[in-house]
Design a protein that fits this description.
By secondary structure, the chain is an alpha/beta fold. It folds into 3 domains: about 90 residues; about 180 residues, P-loop containing nucleotide triphosphate hydrolases (Rossmann fold); about 70 residues. About 55% of the residues lie in helices and about 10% in strands. The chain is built from 17 helices and 6 strands. A 6-stranded mixed sheet has the order 1-3-4-5-2-6. α14 packs parallel to α16.
C-alpha cells in the first residue's frame, strides 16, 4: 500500500491508463497482458470496461476512451478510492483544452465555481416508504431500482439498466419527493439542476454550460434532477421561444444520449404537452403522478392519526369525500393545520370540533 492509502494495483491502473492515453502502448495485445498481470480477479476493473479501454485505444476513439474512464472513476468513487478516482480524472482533464485565464487572474470555468452555479447537491428527505404511490407506480419504481442495483449482472448479458425517468402531473403530488426517494433508495448523491445558472442570453453559452454540468455528473453514480423540465425541453417548433432555447434542446438531445447508465436522470414537469417530442422519447420510463383517490386520502388520514397522540374523531371516509380533487400536498397541509389549531387551543381544545369546523369550510 502507498502512504496515502492507495494500493499498488490501483496505481498500476492509473499509470497504464495514462500511458494508453499518451499512445505509448503500441501493441495492445501486450497492453491486455500487462493489465492482467497487474490485477487479480477481485481488484481488476470490470472486464467489459477493460475491453472498451482496449477498443478505444486500438481504434483511436477518444470519445469511447473518455466514457470508459468515467465509468471506472464512478466505480472507484463508489469503493471510496478517492485518490485513484482523482488521478483518473486528471487523465481526462490533462487532455482537454486549457481554461482561459482572464485579466484579473481568475480561471473561467473553475470546476468548483461551475458546480456551485449549475447544480445544487442535497440530502434526500424522503424514502419510498414515506410516499403514497399507486401499486402500478410502486412496482415500476421498484423494478427500476433493482435494475440499477444489478447493473453489473445486466451488463454481463450485454444489457444496460434504464436510467432516464420522466415524472408528470399537476403540482403537489410528489414528483420531487419521488426523485429524492429514488436517490435515497439507491444511496447515491442527489443533484438538482439550477436553471438560473444555466440559461443565459449569450449565443451558445447555455448549451456550453449544460455540457459542463453533464460532464461533471458523468463521473459519479448519482441522480440528476431537472425540475420544471419544460423550461429547457420545450417543443422546438414553438414560435414564441428564443433561438437560444431551441439550441439548448438540440444540445440536450445529443448529450442525454451520451450519459452513462449510472447517471440516473429524472425530469419533472407540470406541462408534458410543452415538451419536444424527441425529448419525450429519450425517457425510458414515464410516470404520471395524479391526485389521490378517496381510498388514498383515507390512508393519509389514518397515517396522520397514527403519528398524533389523539384521533380526529371523524371517520377517514368523511375527510375523503370533502377533500377529493385536492393534491397530496394540499391534503397534508389541511390535516397539519387542524393539528396545529388543536395544539394551540390546549388545554381546553376539542380536536373533533376543530376538524368538523375545518371540513365545513372546504368548498
Amino acid at each position: 500500500m502507498k502512504g496515502d492509502g492507495v494500493g499498488d494495483n490501483e496505481y498500476s491502473l492509473f499509470y497504464s491508463l495514462k500511458e494508453l492515453e499518451s499512445n505509448k502502448f503500441v501493441h495492445f495485445t501486450g497492453f491486455i497482458t500487462y493489465l492482467c498481470e497487474q490485477f487479480n480477479d477481485e481488484s481488476m476493473a470490470r472486464s467489459d470496461l477493460l475491453i472498451k479501454l482496449v477498443q478505444s485505444g486500438s481504434s483511436g476513439d477518444r470519445h469511447l476512451f473518455k466514457k470508459t474512464v468515467q465509468a471506472i472513476i464512478a466505480e472507484e468513487k463508489g469503493k471510496h478510492h478517492h485518490q485513484l478516482a482523482s488521478k483518473l480524472e486528471d487523465v481526462i482533464i490533462d487532455n482537454q483544452p486549457k481554461p482561459y485565464i482572464n485579466g484579473n487572474g481568475s480561471v473561467n470555468g473553475s470546476k468548483n465555481l461551475q458546480v456551485e452555479k449549475l447544480l445544487h447537491k442535497s440530502n434526500p428527505k424522503f424514502a419510498l416508504k414515506d410516499l403514497y404511490l399507486e401499486q402500478e407506480i410502486s412496482t415500476a419504481v421498484s423494478e427500476f431500482v433493482q435494475e440499477q442495483f444489478r447493473s453489473d449482472f445486466l451488463r454481463s448479458h450485454g444489457l444496460e439498466p434504464r436510467h432516464r425517468i420522466l415524472l408528470t402531473g399537476v403540482p403537489g403530488n410528489g414528483k420531487t419527493s419521488l426523485a429524492e426517494a429514488i436517490a435515497n433508495e439507491l444511496m447515491i448523491p442527489f443533484y438538482r439542476v439550477r436553471y438560473d445558472g444555466i440559461i443565459t442570453s449569450y449565443l451558445g453559452e447555455t448549451a456550453s454550460r449544460l455540457s459542463k454540468l453533464l460532464e461533471f455528473v458523468s463521473q459519479e453514480h448519482c441522480v440528476l434532477f431537472f425540475d420544471e423540465f419544460d423550461a429547457i425541453g420545450k417543443e422546438r417548433g414553438d414560435t414564441h421561444e428564443t433561438g437560444e432555447i431551441k439550441r439548448l434542446v438540440n444540445s440536450l438531445l445529443l448529450q442525454m444520449d451520451e450519459l452513462p447508465s449510472y447517471v440516473v436522470v429524472i425530469a419533472a414537469t407540470n406541462h408534458p404537452e410543452l415538451l419536444d417530442k424527441a425529448v419525450w422519447r429519450r425517457f425510458q420510463i414515464k410516470i404520471e403522478l395524479g391526485k389521490p383517490s378517496e381510498k388514498a386520502i383515507q390512508q393519509v388520514v389514518q397515517d396522520f392519526e397514527k403519528r398524533f397522540p389523539k384521533k380526529f374523531g371523524i371517520a377517514p371516509v368523511q375527510f375523503a369525500k370533502k377533500l377529493t380533487g385536492r393534491s397530496y400536498s394540499e391534503i397534508i397541509d389541511f390535516l397539519l393545520d387542524i393539528q396545529r389549531k388543536y395544539v394551540l387551543s390546549l388545554p381546553e381544545g376539542n380536536l373533533k370540533a376543530i376538524a368538523q369546523s375545518q371540513l365545513k369550510s372546504v368548498k
